[in-house]
């Protein structure tokens, strides 16, 4: 029997795209699925799709940027399935793209609230429920390859995704002793509607310039790359494969490995120069005390 059978996963942004792909793959493993999303219509469609595959599903309307709504998701999940074992912090938006000076406060705030605080609130609401039963579990955060290496003209998105990678590394150390495994999914381009995140942008984050940005050559190129990305159904299956292997970093695009190797080599070379600096010789061999 799979490690997942009979357990319960809460998946934010599960109505479509990567979230639904993960829900489908986990449902195939026998998990109960709580789909939480801001998009009511697609949430219902997704639930019917999963139910047709024999998966037990609960749907809850959720704006991940609202901490109180996350608490309700947790309560409803426990009421329906008894225990929660996994949270998949997947909901995310592409946000505005463009030069540093073209990015305004509303655009930044939207991406920060959804892509970063949404993950923080999700963990704050669900991790205590996983700790409660003592059977262990999983936290899966959806970042991006953009979080591993900066993407020009995409500052807000890149910053939030890098933060999600860093949070995952921090939480992995924190939750290991509780038997809760943390993983961070870092896809490159996947065929979803991420390029059309504007559809889920609440009024308070509206920005006057977004239509100009959507028409920009950068946005058109990003849309083209997403449309030519890998098939979304692969992603959920890859997540299950990586969870079974206990992976912290989950990659879906092995062809990006040379980029990461170049980055690691550049960082290592920078350390080598620091090691040779006359200013730093007194700490070269100093023992490191970790927290
Ligand atoms: N598609 C890609 O190429 C790609 C690459 C790397 C990372 N990602 C990440 O994958 C995750 C999923 O995106 P996707 O590609 O499936 O995009 P998508 O737009 O197809 O799906 C996003 C889902 O999140 C929901 N959502 C949006 N805002 C929300 C909010 N405030 N609260 C709750 N739900 C909300 C949407 O309704 C939708 O169901 C995101 O975090 C994204 O950054 C996507």
Task: Characterise this structure.
The relative contact order is 0.13. This protein has one domain: NAD(P)-binding Rossmann-like Domain (Rossmann fold), CATH 3.40.50.720. The protein is built from nine helices and seven strands; from the N terminus they run E-H-E-H-E-H-E-H-E-H-E-H-H-H-E-H. The protein is globular, with a radius of gyration of 20 Å. It has a seven-stranded parallel sheet, sandwiched between helices. The protein has 291 residues and is an alpha/beta fold. Bound molecules: nicotinamide-adenine-dinucleotide (NAD).
Can you give keywords for this protein?
single chain; alpha/beta; 48% helix
Summarize the structure.
The chain is built from nine helices and seven strands.
| Main sheet attributes: strand count, strand direction, barrel closure | 7 strands, parallel
CATH topology, which one? Rossmann fold
| The CATH architecture | 3-Layer(aba) Sandwich
Poorly predicted parts: none
Overall 3D shape: globular
Can you write the helix and strand succession as a string?
A: EHEHEHEHEHEHHHEH
**Beta-strand content estimate:** 5-15%
Report the average pLDDT across residues: 95
Kindly provide the name of the CATH class. Answer: Alpha Beta
Structural class: alpha/beta
In DSSP terms (H or I, runs of 4 or more residues), the helix count works out at 9
User: What is the percent of helical residues?
Assistant: 40-55%
Rg (C-alpha, Å): 20 Å
N-C termini distance: 38 Å
List the helices and strands and how they pair.
Blueprint: E1 8-12, H1 17-28, E2 32-37, H2 40-52, E3 57-61, H3 67-81, E4 86-89, H4 105-133, E5 137-142, H5 155-175, E6 180-186, H6 210-214, H7 217-227, H8 232-244, E7 249-251, H9 257-276
This protein binds nicotinamide-adenine-dinucleotide (NAD).
